[in-house]
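Here we describe the complex-level prediction in full. Unlike the single-chain runs in Section 2.1, the four entities below were treated as one system.
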Amino acid sequence: MYAIFLPMLKNNIQVKDNAAPDLGASLRAKRKELKLTMQSVADAAGLSVGFISQVERGLTSPSLGSLASLAAALDTEISSFLHQPSAGSQTTHEASRLAYSVADADVSYERLSTSFAGSKLHSVIVHETPGHRMEPISHHGEEMFYILDGEITVEIEGEVEVLRKGDSIHFESRRVHSTWNHGSSIASILWCGTMDVFGDAPAPIHKKASPQEVATYPTGETEK
Amino acid sequence: MYAIFLPMLKNNIQVKDNAAPDLGASLRAKRKELKLTMQSVADAAGLSVGFISQVERGLTSPSLGSLASLAAALDTEISSFLHQPSAGSQTTHEASRLAYSVADADVSYERLSTSFAGSKLHSVIVHETPGHRMEPISHHGEEMFYILDGEITVEIEGEVEVLRKGDSIHFESRRVHSTWNHGSSIASILWCGTMDVFGDAPAPIHKKASPQEVATYPTGETEK
DNA sequence: ATTTATTTTTAGTATTACTAAAAATATGGC
DNA sequence: GCCATATTTTTAGTAATACTAAAAATAAAT
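The structure predicted for the assembly as a whole is:
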């Protein structure tokens, strides 16, 4: 399913010109958004103002404990400082939504989700012709199917289940899964997941561990 | 919308008996899931095996750089080690799905999403009676609405938009948003988002900054 | 029982996370 | 423009700790 749709959808991606901002810049941006001074953040986090300054400018890296204090002082989850990705139309209308299909005409897609800084949610409506089978696949993230029309067979790690109109399933995507439209009509599935199927995100960090590569992580001067 | 549904849904939560696992435990769990030895992780991350052992047992806290190396070695995003929630049925069928309603009978809900370690995706079908209005709200995360039936007016930061059957909208939840069923029939909305509306996640960290409190963050012995 | 694999412990030490205070810069009021 | 105050950056440390190599303990495989 995804293997089929990735190459086609990638052709519609506008790559935003800014690189992923680093941790310090993210912290400063948030502080400014909240119109706080370094001193007030320092007081709330129990750290020194000089340290805040150095962290924001990437001259030093906070420990996890201090980062947690900073995140709390800024009323923000730590994870929101660890990625910052860009936009498209937030709203889609059925009548004017772009439908995509590929050489393999068994499947067509309608993208629902947009993309913005930090977005992790991806959604698409998939229409599969009778008899269409998706190859077994496994990948990061999690996903949900909601059957809008028709019926399909879903297999997850060998467990088979039939889903009909109005049914849903939610699972971790690392579990090997596949679908089959066993019915006699087109099946329409609303897919919603955390896998970046549209290639929206910049600079992935899911490379195989090579320490030099990892050193690009936003920690300022931390270097191996 | 959420303010209304949170208290009600919380009543159906089975609290898993284990407390929120900490960072070290999360790292160990992931390593075991991948069937890796500490030595192989250490090699991949460019760290020592002794250090991995101490980190996993919470005896020491990795720097952000080292944590990034570990995350990469485990082919996982850092943020997934910073929270760990628990399960329910992955599949829901329309005919047997539990529908919830509250004292305020204008709205009823059908939960679609389940919950498992690391799950961040939440989905629910919301049925709103004509005239129902959701108070303006803003919170962390992002969300998507897909209109299954009926029509609603959505307002996001003052921008008003009408969504009809088959339409969708996807936005960052921190933008103040509200909905209104302006139609004459029940509106059914498939909501999919990253906000933990069911209270699945243990130990929230969204407390107001009190350094002592923040010190409970999963960093092992780090103490102020 | 023996060997090997894996994890934990020990004993450090180089590095740095973080400080207080001084200096520089920015802002606001008159 | 001048002056006072607010805010940020810089400086000069140092206590703490992030991380190590190697030994010891434990677990697993044969």
